[in-house]
Amino acid sequence: MFARMSPLSNRGVRLVFHRAVLLLMLNLCRPTLQILKYEASDSATVFQKIIMDSHNGDLFVAGRNTLYMFDKDLVIVDFVETGPVQDRADCDPALLCPDLSPTDNDARVLQVDPKSGHLLFCGSVKQGLCTMYSLRDLTERQLFSSQNRVNYIGGKKDVVAFFGKWGGQDFSALYVGIPYDGRPMELAPKAIAALKLQQMNRAFNLTYVVEDAKLGVRTAIDIDREYKSSYIVNYIYGFQHNGFTYFVTVQRENVNPGSDYITKLVRVCENDMGFYSYTEVQLSCRKQNGVSVFFNIAQAAYFGSVGKEFKDKFDVDDMENVLFIVFGKSDQGSDHASERYGSGLCMYEMNDIQRTFTKTQKDCFSRRGRILPWINSDAPQCMLNVSTG
Ligand SMILES: *[C@@H]1O[C@H](CO)[C@@H](O)[C@H](O)[C@H]1NC(C)=O
Ligand SMILES: *[C@@H]1O[C@H](CO)[C@@H](O)[C@H](O)[C@H]1NC(C)=O
Q1: How many CA atoms within 13 Å lie on the side-chain side of 309?
Q2: Would you say 263 and 328 are in contact if contact means Cβ atoms under 8 Å apart?
Q3: What is the DSSP letter of 55?
Q4: Which alpha helices (DSSP H) does 107-236 contain, by range?
Q5: Distance of alpha carbon 50 from alpha carbon 70, whole angstroms
Q6: Residue 188 neighbours by CB distance under 10 Å
Q7: Which of 74, 94, 280, 337 gives a 20 to 30 Å CA spacing to 232?
């Protein structure tokens, strides 16, 4: 199933990606623009994730059943097949299951772990069980233990995963946001978690950054058992700012199955050992000047900064910390944007976002808010003291 394939030349033609954008920025002053491009081959090739090893510019691209490594000149230096894999959607990877069939492996997580010099890859097969690849040689790979379910962070649906800060240290936690994908409940990972990647001898293992089973404390939060299979939260993007970890999510307005999907930003404090500080606020994006369209479905997001001209034109206070979200609009009751409605781009200043979270948490203390029933169906009122950044 995992085979190495060498020359990847001439296998049909399909444009996959190029570095035009990057080069445009770097080469503005040069008379000619050199565009590097790689054209894949057979039309069945679907690319899904891309990440650069910032150390040397190597580029890793994962797609359905494939993982490529390019050098900084976009020449293929390595390639492995990651599927199809003998699998079944309800199979516990720790057990031997009957009736397996060849199943495509879609890429869900592709991250460079700078500490161990490995590439973390998790796909859609084997309940999202991850694999580590050497950044120098993709044939050198180590599976995570299928016995430890914390190692299942891929899955049938798209997930968000990124290395971030914990305890003031850079890149020491792997933050994940994982939607429920219909698998047997006992094999389902927690919705949001801060994980630690451990390496022992040649094996890798994921654990919660903090876990005390006796006290029931861990760096994770889950959708309440009662709602986990019906209240689906899709994770679009994740980032950190000013001591908090944020996820852009698409979920229903409330647990009522007839309620509409909306976009919510969820937040936990960066060093919260039990994710007690978990808070949600709704993000809205409306078209101004004309018919007011309410865009409800976040499709992609980017946290970054804007330039001086942009700051002046749009009257941005803090040009270093803004969140852009591209939205679509869905038909009623659907969590997918329909092309019919077009799309919108909204920008949020983190100052405003912080203020909104603070207000939400104050409301909570004053008992005007309540604990989110899809997080804890037993708690009718706010009872926890959370930090208000
Ligand atoms: C891997 O981590 C889990 C907890 O997430 C732990 O129970 C297990 O013992 C660890 N395995 C190894 C080999 O350390
Ligand atoms: C919550 O925090 C506030 C402010 O820090 C404090 O005054 C209050 O006593 C705390 N409440 C509880 C129940 O711990």
Answers
A1: 0
A2: no
A3: T
A4: none
A5: 11
A6: 23
A7: 94
For a substitution probing ligand 1, which of 145, 151, 206 has the most ligand atoms within 8 Å of its CB?
A: 145
For 55-110, what is each residue's pLDDT tens digit?
A: 999 999 999 999 999 999 999 999 999 999 999 999 999 999 999 999 999 999 99
For residue 310, tell me if it sits in a domain: yes
Residues in the chain, how many? 389
Please indicate whether residue 150, judged by its CB atom, sits closer than 6 Å to ligand 1.
yes
Rounded Cα distance between 49 and 39, Å, is 16
3-state secondary structure (DSSP) of residue 212: strand
Q: Which amino acid is at 362?
A: K
DSSP 91: -
Q: Residue 164: pLDDT above 80?
A: yes
Residue nearest to atom 12 of ligand 1 (CA): 205
334 lines ligand 1 (CB under 6 A): no
Q: Is residue 386 part of a domain?
A: no
Q: What are phi and psi of 288, to 5 degrees?
A: -95, 180
Ligand 1 neighbour 207 (Cβ under 6 A): yes
Domain extent, residue 218, equals 3-36+45-89+102-376
Q: Is 128 left (phi over 0), alpha (psi -120 to 50) or beta?
A: left
The residue among 145, 140, 132, 196 whose CA lies nearest residue 169 is 196
The count of domains in the chain is: 1
The answer to whether residue 275 sits within a structural domain is yes
Asked if residue 194 is part of any domain, the answer here is yes
Long-range contacts of 23-29 (CB under 8 A, 24+ apart): none
Upper half-sphere CA count for residue 280 (Cβ side, 13 Å): 21
Which ligand minimizes its atom distance to the CA of 196?
1
Give the pair of three-digit tokens for residue 355. Answer: 């203020």
CATH of the domain at 332: 2.130.10.10
The atom of ligand 1 lying closest to the CA of 208 is: 5
Record the tokens describing residue 361, joined without a space.
């948490």
